[in-house]
Design a protein that fits this description.
The structure is a single chain. The chain has 116 residues and is an all-alpha fold. The chain has seven helices and no strands. α1 crosses α3 and α5 (65-80) crosses α6. It starts with a helix and ends with a helix.
C-alpha cells in the first residue's frame, strides 16, 4: 500500500500518469486505478505498512476456513504456553484439522499460509 500511495503522489507531482508510470515501471492503467482508489489505499497504508491491499472479491479464497481459524487459535495458544512450534508441527496439525481427505499441507501451502 505504501508503494501505491507513493506512486499516486509521484504522478500528482509530475502532473502526468504516463510519466509516472514510465518512471516507476508500473502500468499506466494500474496507476489510474490507484488514483481512483486513493482513499482506501491511504487508509490501508496508515493502518499497517505490511498489509497487501486487494480489491473486494479479488484473490484466491481459503478452501477450509474452519480449519484455518482453528489452526491459528491452536498456534496462538501454543505460543502463549511458551512452546516452540515448528513448520512440520503446524503442517501435521493442519492435516488433522482438515475436513478434506485430499489435503496434503505441503510446504508450498505452509509458505502461503504464513503470509496470510
Amino acid at each position: 500500500a505504501a508503494f501505491k500511495l507513493y506512486a499516486v503522489q509521484r504522478a500528482s507531482q509530475l502532473l502526468s500518469v504516463s510519466q509516472a508510470s514510465l518512471e516507476l515501471n508500473v502500468p499506466r492503467r494500474c496507476l489510474q486505478r490507484w488514483k481512483e482508489e486513493i482513499d482506501v489505499i491511504s487508509t490501508v497504508a496508515e493502518q499497517a505498512s505490511n498489509v497487501v491491499y486487494r480489491r473486494p472479491g479479488q484473490g484466491r479464497k481459503v478452501c477450509d476456513s474452519v480449519m484455518d481459524s482453528t489452526l491459528i487459535e491452536w498456534l496462538q495458544q501454543a505460543w502463549k504456553d511458551g512452546e516452540q512450534v515448528t513448520s512440520a508441527a503446524i503442517r501435521q496439525k493442519a492435516r488433522e484439522l482438515s475436513t478434506n481427505q485430499d489435503f496434503k499441507a505441503s510446504l508450498g501451502w505452509y509458505v502461503k499460509w504464513q503470509k496470510r
